[in-house]
Amino acid sequence: MAKKVTKKVTKKETKKEKIDKSKKLIQALKNHGAQIYEDLENGEFPKFSIPNRSISNIIYDKKLRQYVLGTNASLRSARNSSQLRSFTQLLWLAFFANKLTHEKKSSTLRDVYYSSQAFAVDFEDQQESDNIIVDLEAVLSQPREDFFVFPEERSSIFGDLTIEYTIPGYEGKTQNLSSHPDGYAIGPSMTSAQLTDTSAEMVIAIEKGGLFTRFVEEQVDKKFKSIIINTGGQAPRSTRTLLKRLHDELGLPVVILTDGDVYGEHIAMVIKSGSANAAHLRELTVPDAKWMGVWATDIDKFKLPTIPMTESDIKRCYDLLKDPRYEEGLWKRELEVFIKIKRKAELEAFSKYGLTNITEKYLPKKLEESKSF
Amino acid sequence: MGPTAALEFCKFAKFKPETRVGNMTDQELVKLSDALQTYEGFRSPDPTCLAPLGAEPLEKGIQRRFEPDFMAVVQRTASAYSGFPFVVEMGIAYGGKIETRGTTVYRFANRIPLLYDEGSDVVLKVVKDTDWNRYKVKSDSAPFIIVSHICSTRVPYKTVGKENVADRPEIEKELRLALQFLSRKLSGYMSKKGQAEAAKKRANLYSKYLPLVAQFCTELSGKKKEPNYEKMIKEETAINNTDENKEVEKNG
Question: Residue A26's closest chain B neighbor by CA?
Fold first, then answer.
């Protein structure tokens, strides 16, 4: 009971924090607008300073345990005729983001591409508008989800977690996420909702939808007091944001279960420490998250049926070995074992020993093991 | 040849003026022949017997036929091959009512148009040898024409049909010099044109995007009135207008 009280306190704080965040964003957008207004009024050409996202400017920050951008920034000026178009596009997006944030209306990347056409700001293709969105993220150092631009949802969540919606039309409405066995899609309304109450003691993130369904069927949520999340492959950023919130706001440890291959290992790493692609963003990572399996060493230990690695799998292993995050510990050890055995095992491989083998044997063992690292 | 010119030549060829040709050794004869070939002091054969068009009529003709945006003509000084005097005249024109694309060559010899067997003509050879990229001309798509006129007491046709001129080095050289002279002028025009076009594009860009920038930043900053940005567009377009005026002056 005492635990729940503490959680409710956190809730109030987060609500305040959230409003601050949104206010901060609106203020930042407004400041940019005001600066440009002033420049024009003075007959000067306005400009944006955009942090440089090229590889040479991406550094691994050991303290933050994620990739960050260095200090290099490039100017995008309206004076330069070759930058004027993209400058206008960026300003339009800031304007559009401001509108979305005020109205709390969500939009997809594709929506953004089409919305621009109403303002005579033409994007050649969606690729171009996507790039501008990342530029704005970098300028504001806030993810696009903060200004209500969302990718398509493909991951879902299930478990005893009560949320309270904040999106227009649903404000104050609560929902318990264990009432629908197929799980709930992690979309804008989920990521922006208040996390009010839970009896769970941890979060299990699974790479695959099939296993997610199995876990729900086997009542892993009740047996292990957990919230189950299907990342649907590489976790989308809204899912990573939610994972971070579950960890930070509710104090739940996060464990990750992936296929036993190099891509699975990297899915876990991205949840833990982000991707180089999103080096311009903070707060998308759960540094304390643990990769529970399937490890390369598990393949032999649990006598799993395997399939051979392809050449590109092996190449990926060597590529990752150069990544500073894979320089030590478990991460390096497992990669090296993958390279040595040149075989991989999927999560479904446990079915060889019966459909419930993974939840009844493997999971408890690994959970126990994971407490020690 | 008068005695002064003869003495000059003897000095050049290092022969004593008294030497008689009949007494020369074979070696000396070869030396004399070489000297005659290389000596530049001989006057060209008298070109007054030739009937070139003249730069002005050529220019008028091109103007009337094509009304081009750019045109240049040149009449080379008279020259000679194998003792026959000749004059090369050439004109080049770009744009206007020229409908053909790529290099189109109009050949004339002694005021007669040459219509057939263009490919083996020396003029075509010279035109094809030219690297048009150097002159900022897209030789496969640009609307430009070349008019060449060779005027001589004896035009060296390759065939009895008198349709194509043979590539005598002297004629080829004159054609080449004439074409290079004209191409340089065309190149000057092309780069100005390129600059003017880029400037115009730039001006359009500003008048398209600056109003949008003003609109968005006004709404974003929550201001009611749009900033006064018109003068910035005016400044940008003003710079370009002066550029274009200069352009017209020079060509006119």
Answer: B220
